[in-house]
């Protein structure tokens, strides 16, 4: 009986205090997104440029028959471009019925973050892109920037 | 007893819509031939069935109204009333009301409609005749008095050992074993519901242990007008029979107490060994019987549209992967693969065409509502018109069907309002009093043509030009040089409307340009042919489907694009010397026509290093009635493509209509000629 209760307690803690995130690198900075929105992580696919699209959209890729736009956060956030290499990945995420991918330089790991470790944006970050950022998390000596995918995609959820 | 009917609601809605369509169509017919008894019977049947269905479902307002309609109809049938225009109009009004009520039920915003006014009208019509009372009995659903059926055939059921044990047990507990033969009104549209109600009634007082046909078939309505069942009960036979008879459209044809011993000794019913054989032979006999009746009715299944779209997507993907497989076979020169690839090719092509066919819907669906609309309009405008529909069985992709209705309404209204003259004018011109309006659909190659033709006054060219000048759509100078065709095409310009006074019917600010835009968004074309004094014909050309189209693949630098073939007029090759400049716009001469020339590279933000190549390829595309030359690097070829949407994030980019997944797995974009320039 005791074990069952323990288990339940743990579960409770996971949902309440801990968020699981996928951490990745863009340029010299480290970012993270909520794992619940991540559908899959792929090697870089052939990107087809879409003329007349916003400049932060690299193009579209074919993901098993669906056409998915690829967002380049380097352009969006004015980060150094490292160019493509072995570690370049596309993180495909889904939000409501919108699917999109972001190009990242390297996917680091999946982390459990305690909510208490996350600082709200306004305290640390103050720029044009601030609204796309949920907060900054401290993990040992690293700083992870938590992205707000919903804002990033410009999805209005009523 | 309260029953949950919600599971039957869909069926009810679908079927009542069918009946409403029938009612509309046969009422129109009745108006033309008031003495057509077969037509009257049709109307009566539709109204009657609707009444039965709606009272089953508990929609009393519907049932009440149809009941009163039926009264009038039955008098018409008996010849006690005459189908004059007042009567027909009232009936039409009733049908409209029924439509409103049913729409309300469907959208879930149903309120009990107040039909008292209409019912009064119907009553007055009916009371105009004092012999009416004599025919009142006719109103109740009667079941054809079948010859007094008796059950002498115990072979109807095949009992297995388990059944026998159950029956023995029941007998010893004081139950009796009853065999009922239940008849259902042959006009009944919801047999399954009736059977369900019979079951419900009987199961209050007993247990049904056997049915013929099987319970599942009964549930799905797969039976003719009668069925058999065996009930274990303590209740009285006549009491039960009465209660069954209380279910409307249902009647107990015969009932009897089964004698278990007789069953066992005769041995006919206990067929443990050869049961299946006998059963199957019985089934074949049954099938043969059913087949006779099924001949007339086409078997159909109603399928959720989303599922079809899903299937289409999957097939599209299969076709794409087939392409990849072909490429792998070619690059690696795997000869063993060839045969398999050919097989897959054949199968996927077949599959594709089957799925395409499944998505095809007869245009009837759209056309069906027009006779009524034309009739009402003609009445309103006080014009006499003979409306003819041809080729309503022509099939089109569902997506096109959904979109084509409004433009056609517009064209028909136009023809009635502006095209056809009033009867007096027609007589004065020496034309028959009645105007002709024809709506025609037909297949031709990969296209469907829909034509709206009238034999009215035709388009007045001068009036059109005058109007265009007045609205400042053209200059006086331009007006002088217009050909007849060109001037008629002015009709399609935005902001044009020829009706001098805006009527309720047409000319409400939305002009033919809206029709044209809609047709073009469906990858179609519209043109008009009009002879003064003789009439006008609008012809719409539509592709059979929108999901898979033919495209011309072209390349610029290292990018490949698809141009829908419907937008391509021709391809040609030019040299640099052919390019002339007019007001800093490049143009070329093509068989006497001057075409503006655009470089695709520049349009899609690629560097255009003006190559001094001696020759360059030009795709001549059509944007509206304008031809435009599009310079590309190479022409790759024609290809069948499956269109995919770009998704929310990239929606609305001008010049791009969608994307395809090419055989090599890469995404290619489809150019949208109408918004590219």
Describe what this molecule looks like in 3D.
The complex is a heterodimer of chains A (158) and B (677). Chain A is an alpha+beta fold and 158 residues long. Chain A has a single domain (18-153), classed as CheA-289, Domain 4 (OB fold (Dihydrolipoamide Acetyltransferase, E2P)), CATH 2.40.50. Chain A is 18% helix and 47% strand. Chain A has 4 helices and 11 strands. In chain A, the strands form 2 sheets. A 6-stranded mixed beta sheet of chain A has the order 8-1-2-11-10-9. The radius of gyration of chain A is 17 Å and the shape is globular. Mean pLDDT of chain A is 79; it is low at 1-13. Chain B is α+β, with helices and mostly antiparallel strands and 677 residues long. Chain B folds into 5 domains: 6-139, Four Helix Bundle (Hemerythrin (Met), subunit A), CATH 1.20.120.160; 154-270, Histidine kinase CheA-like, P2 response regulator-binding domain (Alpha-Beta Plaits), CATH 3.30.70; 306-362, Helix Hairpins, CATH 1.10.287.560; 364-543, Histidine kinase-like ATPase, C-terminal domain (Heat Shock Protein 90, 2-Layer Sandwich); 548-676, Beta Barrel (OB fold (Dihydrolipoamide Acetyltransferase, E2P)). In chain B, 45% of the residues lie in helices and 23% in strands. Chain B is built from 23 helices and 22 strands. In chain B, the strands form 5 sheets. Chain B has a 6-stranded mixed beta sheet with strand order 14-18-19-17-16-15. A 5-stranded mixed beta sheet of chain B has the order 6-8-9-11-10. In chain B, strands 20-12-13-22-21 form a 5-stranded mixed beta sheet. Chain B is flat and about 105 Å long. The termini of chain B are far apart. The relative contact order of chain B is 0.06. Classes of the chains: A alpha+beta (158), B alpha+beta (677). Chains A and B meet through strand 4, strand 5 and strand 7 of A and helix 12, strand 21 and strand 22 of B. Chain B: Residues 1-105 form the HPt domain. Chain B: Residues 548-677 form the CheW-like domain. Chain B: It catalyses: ATP + protein L-histidine = ADP + protein N-phospho-L-histidine.
């Amino acid at each position: 009986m005791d074990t069952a209760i323990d288990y339940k307690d743990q579960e409770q803690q996971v949902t309440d205090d801990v968020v699981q995130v996928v951490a990745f690198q863009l340029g010299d900075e480290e970012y993270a997104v909520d794992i619940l929105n991540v559908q899959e992580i792929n090697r870089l696919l052939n990107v087809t440029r879409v003329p007349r699209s916003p400049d932060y959209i690299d193009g579209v890729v074919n993901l098993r028959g669906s056409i998915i736009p690829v967002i380049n956060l380097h352009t969006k956030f004015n980060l150094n471009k490292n160019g493509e290499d072995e570690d370049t990945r596309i993180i495909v995420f889904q939000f409501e019925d919108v699917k999109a991918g972001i190009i990242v330089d390297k996917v680091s790991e999946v982390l459990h973050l305690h909510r208490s470790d996350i600082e709200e944006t306004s305290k640390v970050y103050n720029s044009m892109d601030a609204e796309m950022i949920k907060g900054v998390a401290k993990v040992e000596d690293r700083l992870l920037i938590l992205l707000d995918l919903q804002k990033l995609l410009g999805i209005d959820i009523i | 007893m309260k029953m949950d009917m919600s599971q039957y609601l869909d069926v009810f809605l679908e079927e009542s819509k069918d009946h409403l369509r029938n009612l509309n169509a046969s009422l129109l017919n009745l108006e033309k031939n008031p003495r057509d008894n077969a037509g009257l019977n049709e109307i009566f049947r539709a109204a009657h069935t609707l009444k039965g269905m709606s009272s089953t479902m508990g929609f009393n307002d519907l049932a009440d109204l149809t009941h009163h309609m039926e009264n009038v109809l039955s008098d018409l049938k008996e010849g006690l009333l005459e189908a004059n225009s007042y009567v027909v109009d009232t009936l039409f009004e009733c049908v409209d009301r029924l439509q409103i009520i049913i729409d309300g039920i469907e959208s879930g915003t149903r309120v009990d409609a107040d039909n008292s006014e209409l019912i009064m009208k119907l009553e007055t019509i009916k009371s105009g005749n004092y012999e009416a009372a004599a025919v009142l009995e006719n109103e109740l659903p009667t079941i054809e008095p079948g010859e007094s059926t008796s059950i002498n055939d115990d072979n109807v059921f095949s009992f297995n050992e388990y059944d026998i044990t159950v029956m023995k047990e029941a007998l010893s507990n004081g139950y009796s074993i009853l065999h009922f033969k239940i008849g259902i009104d042959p006009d009944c549209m919801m047999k399954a519901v009736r059977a369900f109600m019979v079951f419900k009634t009987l199961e209050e007082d007993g247990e049904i242990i056997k049915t013929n046909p099987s319970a599942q078939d009964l549930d799905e309505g797969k039976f003719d007008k009668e069925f058999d069942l065996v009930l274990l009960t303590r209740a009285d036979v006549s009491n039960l029979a009465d209660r069954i008879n209380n279910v409307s459209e249902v009647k107990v044809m015969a009932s009897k107490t089964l004698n278990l011993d007789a069953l066992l000794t005769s041995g006919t019913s206990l067929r443990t060994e050869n049961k299946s054989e006998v059963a199957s032979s019985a089934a074949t006999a049954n099938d043969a019987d059913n087949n006779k009746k099924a001949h007339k009715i086409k078997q159909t299944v109603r399928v959720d549209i989303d599922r079809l779209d899903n299937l289409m997507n999957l097939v599209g993907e299969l076709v794409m992967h087939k392409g990849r497989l072909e490429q792998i076979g070619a690059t690696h020169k795997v000869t063993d693969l060839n045969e398999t690839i050919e097989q897959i090719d054949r199968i996927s092509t077949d599959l594709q065409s089957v799925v395409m066919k499944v998505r095809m819907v007869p245009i009837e669906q759209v056309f069906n509502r027009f006779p009524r609309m034309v009739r009402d309009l003609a009445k309103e405008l006080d014009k006499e018109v003979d409306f003819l529909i041809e080729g309503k069985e022509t099939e089109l992709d569902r997506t096109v069907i959904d979109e084509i209705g409004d433009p056609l309404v517009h064209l028909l209204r136009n023809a009635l309002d502006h095209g056809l003259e009033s009867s007096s004018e027609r007589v004065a011109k020496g034309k028959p009093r009645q105007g002709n309006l024809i709506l025609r659909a037909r297949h031709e190659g990969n296209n469907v043509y829909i034509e709206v033709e009238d034999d009215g006054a035709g388009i007045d060219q001068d009036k059109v030009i005058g109007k265009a000048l007045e609205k400042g759509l053209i200059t006086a100078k331009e007006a002088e040089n217009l050909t007849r065709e060109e001037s008629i095409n002015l009709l399609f310009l935005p902001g044009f409307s020829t009706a001098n006074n805006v009527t309720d019917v047409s000319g409400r600010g939305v002009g033919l340009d809206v029709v044209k835009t809609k047709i073009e968004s469906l990858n179609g074309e519209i043109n008009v042919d009009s002879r003064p004094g003789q009439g006008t014909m609008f012809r719409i050309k539509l592709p059979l489907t929108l999901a898979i189209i033919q495209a011309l693949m072209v390349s610029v630098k290292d990018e490949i694009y698809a141009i829908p073939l419907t937008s391509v007029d021709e391809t040609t090759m030019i040299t640099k010397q052919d390019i002339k400049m007019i007001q800093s716009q490049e143009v070329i001469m093509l068989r006497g026509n001057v075409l503006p020339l655009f470089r695709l590279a520049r349009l899609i933000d690629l560097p255009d290093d003006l190559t001094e190549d001696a020759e360059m390829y030009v795709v001549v595309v059509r944007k509206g009635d304008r031809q435009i030359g599009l310079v590309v690097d190479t022409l790759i070829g024609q290809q069948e493509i499956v269109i995919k949407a770009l998704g929310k994030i990239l929606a609305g980019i001008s010049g791009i209509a969608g994307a395809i997944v090419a055989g090599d797995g890469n995404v290619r974009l489809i150019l949208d000629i109408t918004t590219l320039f």
